[in-house]
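User: For a benchmark we're assembling, each entry needs the component sequences followed by a predicted structure for the full assembly. Here are entry 17's components. Please fill in the structure.
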Amino acid sequence: MSLLGDRQQLAYIAAQAADARVNVELETEGMTLNIGPQHPATHGTLRIIARLDGEQVLWADPSCGYMHRGYEKLTEVRSYPQVTALVNRIDWLGSFANEVPFILAAEKLMGVEAPSRAQHIRTILFELSRIANVTLFLGDLGVQLGAVTPVFFAFRDREYVLNLIEGATGGRFHPNFDRIGGLKDDLPAGFIDETRNVMKKLRGFCDQIEDLLFGNEIFQSRTRGIGVIPKDVALQYGMSGANLRASGVDWDLRRDQKLPLAYDKVDWKVITHPDGDSFARCWVRLQEVRESTRIVDQLLDTIPAGPIMAKVPKIIKVPEGEAWVSTENPLGEMGYYVVSQGDMGPFRVKIRSASFNNISITPWLLKGVYVPDIITILASLYFILGDIDR
Amino acid sequence: MSSTTDTPIETPRDEVREAEIARVCAALGSAVIDSLVKPNDDMWIRVSADAWRSTGETLKTLGYTYFGFISAIDWLPSPYGRGEDDPTAPPVERSTVIKQGYAGGDTRFQVIARLVQPFTTLGINIKVDVDDSLMAVDSWSQVFAGANWHERETHEMFGIGFNGHPDLRNMYLPTDFEGHPLRKDFPLLARMVKPWPGIVDVEPLPGDDSEEEGDAS
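Assistant: Structure for entry 17:
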């Protein structure tokens, strides 16, 4: 950030602090604490400027933009098939999930629907990327609280999932596998058996984490009742995904929305928690990994035969129109508002990413908490920097 | 599927949206300029700029409590096309005729917001024209708290002001950054100085003389 920017920000901080004074009788001293952008406790380059009064946060202001890559502008100069390579990098831990809503939006505009085998495999890969994403969260969570062991388990077990994704798509982190009208390739031989094994391992991992971390007294006392988000506030801020369900809102786009994906063919349940605190958010995510492994297991049994690609022209031109498609991504609701003017590429794409809305609650949420809780609250909100800044 | 949500059949779902848009239009009254329902897809309305804020308030009372996003669309066709011109060639003449999208519009810039009824996932896209001389609409940040950051982002990227917003600081860019990157007439400099190699979908093989920057090993 430039000098001018910093100076303006400091002036803003001073003005905010002037009228927000608590604990006057204790004569605590105010101080401005800068966390980040390069700080081990903020996974990514999120910078948080907090004004403290003693140990208490008067207000906190996240400062984004250290990872801004301008994808909305870049999509305007790319063709539709090229955009998936960009959006892979928005939420880089669950990258396949980013491609799906964009491809679905393009398919909606073109009036194309992928064959059922492709929809099925899409859903499997979608859930695999959710597992890859959230397992890292579960491991990372321990690190934020001073427990180092879980992260090793998480990285070990996440690797199995990444190997599966790599086996199917060729890319560990950035599959770029979804195509308008279907998928690039069919599943490789042995994928189904291997995936079953991995799902079993991951359920073991979930048990391990639940035992190690969620049953831990320190973990519970650091997260229970901390950072409570009531239902109506969560909706107002547009929070989504596990953060919303942890506030007791029974809403999951996988279930509640009609999309050409295979979620309606399997038996699974939406996990909610009434508390809305940090613990609830972590707990919901843990249970969702379990549900995801169940979804994948059931989908593996019922993959229909058939083509993996619908008939689409070689050079893709999308007819004029506007479309909005959002899916329940690992981080929450991720949607694309695609405006087409009949060109090879989109006219405008608004990327509505989950973390942007989820993090926009932090100025409200961090007010009044204690300094160590900043880290647990941020960890439990779970953001990916690329998903905030795009 | 474990839940008891309605299995969507083509026609009834349609009626749901038709009825919903009628309800919304009745509540908003003369504020609605245009509306559109795409069967089994989505709803669009366009409201007058004076009623922008009250539209948000009314929709909130109508059950649209989940805040989706706020952004803007610059309808001007890009003077740089798709950024695939040869930078050494003389500039290409392009049409500047504005083609509006769903629910119409009269101005170059439109602010678009999306609100959703939780549980039914019935969403509505609300558009409002931004007057070229004012370049501002009312802020929704008092109505939906989540609008705060979205309006900051829109202000930074499009230069559209939001009256009543508490703090329109830049979100991503340095404070002294000039220009509004998502406007169509803001050039994407990387495409201006070097031809885009992605025009052809085939990468040159190592050993081809067209690209010199690859390492020789």
